[in-house]
Amino acid sequence: MQVHLQDGGSGYRAHHYVHGAHFRQLQLIVMRGFTLVELIMTLVIIGMLAVVVGPRFFSRQPFDERLFYEESLSAVRYAQKLALASGCPVRAQINSSGYSLTYAAACGTATSGTVLSNPAGGTFSSAPPGTVTVQAALDVTFNSLGCVNAAGACATGSTVAQVGGFSMTVYGSTGFVDSAL
């Protein structure tokens, strides 16, 4: 480091170089930051907290409940629309074994009790994940009018199903499937 000194009026300039211990002291004053040991200890503490506390904040159960509820809701809505479009009675069930859609009576080539095919492939039946419980079961049959079948006519009232903390209501007179989140 070079320091310029100027003499009052003579115009004489002297150059003075700072070496050794004085320069190192100046360096220590200017440099700031964390040591490698401090950074490593901070990362170790954060890692320990993530292992111990993290799983308590990230439980899969709410996600599994919501997923199974949404699948069930979509299946029941599909059953109502299929019954209306095809004219075939379709039965939708949600219980502790899962959900399923079946033909309620023989229709075309399908026999009564045949599980409906999912347009995306597979069938419309699924078991709930292990952590999901169905508190209130649903068993409705939609007729060719799209409403809930009751001895050949549209039923009155409503039926409620509850999956985890979520519930859906099927209104008998219209077949409307309402979601209450």
Explain what this protein looks like in three dimensions.
With 181 residues, the protein is of the alpha+beta class. The chain folds into 2 domains: 2-57, no CATH class; 63-180, 3-Layer(bab) Sandwich (minor pseudopilin epsh fold), CATH 3.55.40.10. The chain has 3 helices and 12 strands; from the N terminus they run ββαααββββββββββ. The protein has helices at residues 21-30, 36-57, 61-86; strands spanning 2-6, 13-17, 90-95, 98-103, 125-126, 134-136, 138-142, 149-150, 153-154, 158-163, 166-171, 177-180. Strands 5-4-3-7 form a 4-stranded antiparallel sheet, covered by helices on one side. Strands 6-10-11-12 form a 4-stranded antiparallel sheet, covered by helices on one side. A hairpin with a 5-residue loop joins strand 11 (166-171) and strand 12 (177-180). The chain starts with a strand and ends with a strand. The model is unreliable at 11-16 (pLDDT under 50).
Can you identify the CATH superfamily of the largest domain? minor pseudopilin epsh domain
Task: Please state the average pLDDT score.
Answer: 84
Going by helix content, strand content and strand pairing, the class is: alpha+beta
CATH-derived topology of the largest domain: minor pseudopilin epsh fold
Strand content: 25-35%
Order of strands across the biggest sheet?
A: 5-4-3-7
Largest sheet: 4 strands, antiparallel
The end-to-end span amounts to 71 Å
CATH architecture level-2 label of the largest domain = 3-Layer(bab) Sandwich
Give the count of helical stretches: 3
H/E order of the elements? EEHHHEEEEEEEEEE
The gyration radius over C-alpha positions equals 36 Å
Low-confidence stretches: 11-16
